């Protein structure tokens, strides 16, 4: 019997042979759809898969003069810990927090967000897990996830390497924008507790604990009640809806999101030049992880405080008569909050914001 010749296999280059797997990318999209569907708002038009996300701007008609607030950010080197531990469904919370908690600082309501995930090789389940975390974070922030992009960069990133970034949009009434121009002498500073390190300073944390300290991510610490890796991957707390609730129940002059730069530098951004913010360290005790970083790396307190949040993730500046209703609102929402300082007249030897006293034990 005569056999038909086997068709010759193509020998030329292809996108797949160059390292980009379109089919794997398509599978990742299918896996993430159910999570994206959970992160929506009534104003979202259409679904996942278009070239652009659509948001019905007629929702802004309820504003007299709507201003759009925009922010973009990433998660930083915390993604490397996620890679090492094989945990991908928490850093999305970090991403949303970094973006949307910046937006709410001006008093804006978070509306929608897009994400960008860059990988060395598409692992569909991994991509879906990352998007799951982003979608969950969007729900916690009250915004919609209207789209995103996954890019495969073989040759630039290793097969297991990845990074994430996002951009968000919010809206605020022009005459309700918060900031330094509203802050007054006598305002009280209400601190809201962080959930841990959040997503800043991880280059220092990794250098101190892993490189210099030689600590294992699997090592269990009694102070944490869990492993070091679990502690370091604790997601950033998302304050957006808590801050919006404060605006509905109390007079608020400013918010400060405590990210890179630490407490004093971020608070100083919302304090006018003629005033001075004073935070009292004795009003709270930073979580044990901050002490571990300091002790292991012999890191000076000044360096810790200008790099890490030291237990405070958001600060609200309110008039004295608004303190009680503000604290009550936050307590009702399960937010650990306390009076941490005040706004004073600026003297010749004071700075924009400073910390005094020794941390509570």
From TrEMBL:
Domain PurM-like C-terminal: 184-348
GO BP of this protein: 'de novo' IMP biosynthetic process
Record domain PurM-like N-terminal: where: 64-172
A cellular component annotation (GO) from this entry: cytoplasm
Keywords attached to this entry: ATP-binding, Cytoplasm, Ligase, Nucleotide-binding, Purine biosynthesis
Keyword Ligase: yes
EC number: 6.3.3.1
Pathway(s) it belongs to: Purine metabolism; IMP biosynthesis via de novo pathway; 5-amino-1-(5-phospho-D-ribosyl)imidazole from N(2)-formyl-N(1)-(5-phospho-D-ribosyl)glycinamide: step 2/2
Entries under CDD domains matching the protein: PurM
An example Gene Ontology molecular-function term: phosphoribosylformylglycinamidine cyclo-ligase activity
Pfam families from the UniProt entry: AIRS, AIRS_C
InterPro entries per UniProt: PurM-like_C_dom, PurM-like_C_sf, PurM-like_N, PurM-like_N_sf, PurM_cligase
Location in the cell: Cytoplasm
Reactions this protein catalyses: 2-formamido-N(1)-(5-O-phospho-beta-D-ribosyl)acetamidine + ATP = 5-amino-1-(5-phospho-beta-D-ribosyl)imidazole + ADP + phosphate + H(+)
Record carries keyword Signal: no
Family designation: Belongs to the AIR synthase family.
NCBIfam families: purM (TIGR00878)
Cross-referenced HAMAP family: AIRS (MF_00741)
Protein's name according to its UniProt entry: Phosphoribosylformylglycinamidine cyclo-ligase
Lineage of the species this protein comes from: Bacteria, Bacillati, Actinomycetota, Actinomycetes, Kitasatosporales
């Amino acid at each position: 019997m005569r056999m038909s010749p086997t068709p010759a296999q193509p020998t030329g280059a292809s996108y797949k042979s160059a390292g980009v797997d379109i089919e794997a990318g398509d599978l990742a999209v299918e896996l993430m759809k159910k999570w994206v569907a959970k992160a929506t708002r009534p104003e979202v038009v259409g679904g996942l898969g278009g070239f652009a996300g659509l948001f019905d701007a007629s929702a802004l008609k309820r504003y007299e003069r709507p201003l759009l607030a925009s922010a973009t950010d990433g998660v930083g080197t915390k993604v490397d810990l996620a890679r090492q531990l094989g945990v991908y469904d928490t850093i999305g919370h970090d991403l949303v927090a970094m973006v949307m908690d910046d937006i709410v600082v001006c008093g804006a309501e978070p509306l929608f967000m897009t994400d960008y995930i860059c990988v060395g090789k598409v692992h569909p389940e991994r991509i879906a897990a990352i998007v799951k975390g982003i979608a969950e974070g969007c729900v916690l922030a009250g915004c919609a996830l209207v789209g995103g992009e996954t890019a495969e960069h073989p040759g630039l990133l290793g097969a297991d390497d990845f990074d994430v970034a996002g951009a968000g949009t919010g809206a605020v009434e022009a005459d309700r924008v918060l900031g330094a121009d509203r802050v007054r002498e006598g305002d009280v500073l209400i601190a809201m507790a962080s959930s841990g390190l959040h997503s800043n300073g991880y280059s220092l944390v990794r250098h101190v604990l892993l490189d210099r300290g030689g600590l294992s991510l699997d090592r269990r610490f009694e102070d944490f009640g869990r492993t070091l890796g679990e502690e370091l991957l604790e997601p950033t707390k998302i304050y957006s809806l808590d801050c919006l609730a404060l605006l509905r129940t109390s007079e608020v002059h400013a918010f400060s999101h405590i990210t890179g730069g630490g407490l004093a530098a971020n608070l100083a951004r919302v304090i006018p030049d003629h005033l001075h913010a004073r935070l009292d360290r004795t009003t709270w005790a930073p979580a044990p992880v901050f002490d571990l970083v300091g002790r292991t790396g012999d890191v000076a307190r000044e360096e810790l405080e200008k790099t890490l949040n030291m237990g405070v993730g958001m600060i609200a500046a309110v008039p004295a008569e608004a303190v009680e209703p503000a604290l009550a609102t936050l307590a009702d929402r399960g937010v650990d909050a306390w009076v941490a300082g005040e706004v004073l007249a600026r003297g010749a030897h004071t700075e924009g914001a400073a910390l005094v006293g020794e941390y509570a034990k």
